[in-house]
């Protein structure tokens, strides 16, 4: 598939139970999700024709929808079959896969939308390194002026569209400064995550990563923690204060899009792209292609 605007490409998208032409996969301007963020999604990667942790992603899509008080009208098995159909229809073996479910247009157009249909779409496209050459030399991160919110204010463990509003603005601000991404603190001032990836630090051969008590506990994050423990590396999941970054030697990001990406700088703090960082990145690459 050629690069270009995402609404103007050749290919097929699965929409509400059937494959449609890419350019025909459209929604009405009065779609509820467009106005009120009643939308959840998943980002997944296929390697050698197989989507990594596919079923866990489909299960989380259902969980996220429940957090936003709607039910997806397709089972996990049906979503799994649809994703395979999309890959096959577009001839992909390596691809990024996006499943998105949302409250569509219907008889309700206020905040309440219980009578509106819930819709589901699945698309796939070719996507290389999320951070470009930062995958090799280490990404540079800005520190966002926004904070990850308290679990009392929003369903923080859902992969919901509304939670990404501050991610977009933070990433734009970071890019204007020549950075690849931005790091959030949480509502208490602890280190949280990047705009679309979890974060890890290394000190004296041990790994420290923020406790995901107010942000998404990423599937890649969970995978990498298991890999580290299998290597005999001690992993501390805990609250981390920003000033602790001065004492950390290495740093990396994890996420479906980011995979395992080294970090060279966060604000005024610098990190080496060290042996453990490179080792876990290589191990992850082998695992997803196994």
UniProtKB/TrEMBL annotation:
Q: Does the keyword Transferase apply?
A: yes
| UniProt feature coiled coil, ranges | none
- What's one GO BP annotation on this UniProt entry? branched-chain amino acid biosynthetic process
Annotated metabolic or biological route of this protein? Amino-acid biosynthesis; L-isoleucine biosynthesis; L-isoleucine from 2-oxobutanoate: step 4/4; Amino-acid biosynthesis; L-valine biosynthesis; L-valine from pyruvate: step 4/4; Amino-acid biosynthesis; L-leucine biosynthesis; L-leucine from 3-methyl-2-oxobutanoate: step 4/4
GO cellular component term of the entry, any: cytosol
Q: Which Gene3D superfamilies match?
A: 3.30.470.10, D-amino Acid Aminotransferase, subunit A, domain 2
User: GO: which molecular function terms?
Assistant: branched-chain-amino-acid transaminase activity
Record's keyword annotation contains Heme: no
Entry EC number(s): 2.6.1.42
Q: Matching PANTHER family, A to Z?
A: AMINO-ACID AMINOTRANSFERASE, AMINODEOXYCHORISMATE LYASE
Summarize the protein's role.
Answer: Acts on leucine, isoleucine and valine.
Full protein name = Branched-chain-amino-acid aminotransferase
Q: Which organism is it from?
A: Sagittula salina
**Source taxonomy:** Bacteria, Pseudomonadati, Pseudomonadota, Alphaproteobacteria, Rhodobacterales
Gene this protein is translated from: ilvE
């Amino acid at each position: 598939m050629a690069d270009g605007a995402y609404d103007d490409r050749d290919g097929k998208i699965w929409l509400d139970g059937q494959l449609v032409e890419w350019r025909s996969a459209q929604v009405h301007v009065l779609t509820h999700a467009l106005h009120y963020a009643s939308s959840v999604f998943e980002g997944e990667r296929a390697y050698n024709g197989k989507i990594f942790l596919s079923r866990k992603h489909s299960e989380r899509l259902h969980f996220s929808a429940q957090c936003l008080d709607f039910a997806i009208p397709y089972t996990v098995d049906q979503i799994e079959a649809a994703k395979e159909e999309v890959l096959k229809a577009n001839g992909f073996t390596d691809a990024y896969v996006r499943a998105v479910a949302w409250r569509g247009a219907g008889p309700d157009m206020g905040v309440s939308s219980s009578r509106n249909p819930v819709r589901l779409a699945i698309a796939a496209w070719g996507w290389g390194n999320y951070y470009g050459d930062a995958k090799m030399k280490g990404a540079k991160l800005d520190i966002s002026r926004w904070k990850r919110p308290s679990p009392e204010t929003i369903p923080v463990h859902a992969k919901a569209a509304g939670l990404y509003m501050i991610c977009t603005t933070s990433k734009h601000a970071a890019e204007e400064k020549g950075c690849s991404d931005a790091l959030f603190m949480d509502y208490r001032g602890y280190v949280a995550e990047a705009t679309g990836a979890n974060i890890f630090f290394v000190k004296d051969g041990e790994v420290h990563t923020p406790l995901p008590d107010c942000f998404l506990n990423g599937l890649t994050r969970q995978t990498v923690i298991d890999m580290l423990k299998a290597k005999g590396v001690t992993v501390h999941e805990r609250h981390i204060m920003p000033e602790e970054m001065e004492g950390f030697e290495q740093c990396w990001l994890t996420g479906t899009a980011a995979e395992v990406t080294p970090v060279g700088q966060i604000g005024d703090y610098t990190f080496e792209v060290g042996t453990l960082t490179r080792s876990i990145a290589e191990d992850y690459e082998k695992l997803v292609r196994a």
